[in-house]
UniProtKB/TrEMBL annotation:
This is Regulatory protein RecX. The lineage of its organism: Bacteria, Pseudomonadati, Pseudomonadota, Alphaproteobacteria, Sphingomonadales. Residues 84-105 are annotated as: Disordered. It comes from the Bacteria. Residues 91-102 have a biased composition (Basic residues). It comes from Alteriqipengyuania abyssalis.
């Protein structure tokens, strides 16, 4: 009898739809890792994993905290999209900045190498030594690839 009552309580109206919506929201790729979500709602990571797999059966306090957290994240994402500051845009902007700084660094290194070679030659040293060094570096580089 007690088990039958528990099963009826577990099948409360809307519970299955609630868990289905929870699973869909947990599948969002913009969410942080499960460990971060778990620490934010004061739960353990396996709980988040079970919620994502859909093995939860009852709406407990932890499930409600997870739902509230996901609601806040969804509202924050909507607000950011409204202003055009999406997470994807921010990541894209950072990677673009990294490429620009790498390009700038490469340009500086090329200029430094050119200036060093010009200085070496201006001081009257043998240009054949530079050519031999470049050939040696090319051979070493081709072996490493």
């Amino acid at each position: 009898m007690r088990y039958a009552i528990m099963r009826i309580k577990m099948k409360e109206a809307g519970t299955e739809e609630f868990f289905a919506r929870l699973r869909v929201r947990l599948d969002d790729r913009a969410l942080p890792p499960q460990e971060v979500i778990a620490s934010a709602i004061h739960a353990d990571q396996p709980f988040i994993s079970r919620a994502k797999r859909g093995t939860l059966k009852r709406v407990t306090a932890r499930v409600q905290r997870l739902d509230a957290y996901l609601s806040r994240r969804t509202a924050l994402s909507a607000k950011l999209e409204e202003h055009g500051d999406t997470v994807r845009g921010a990541v894209h902007q950072r990677s673009k900045t990294r490429l620009q700084s790498k390009r700038t660094r490469d340009d500086r290194e090329v200029k430094l190498a050119r200036k060093s070679c010009e200085t070496y030659l201006a001081e009257g040293y043998n240009p054949r030594v530079l050519i031999d060094q470049i050939d040696l570096l090319r051979k070493a580089q081709s072996k490493s690839l």
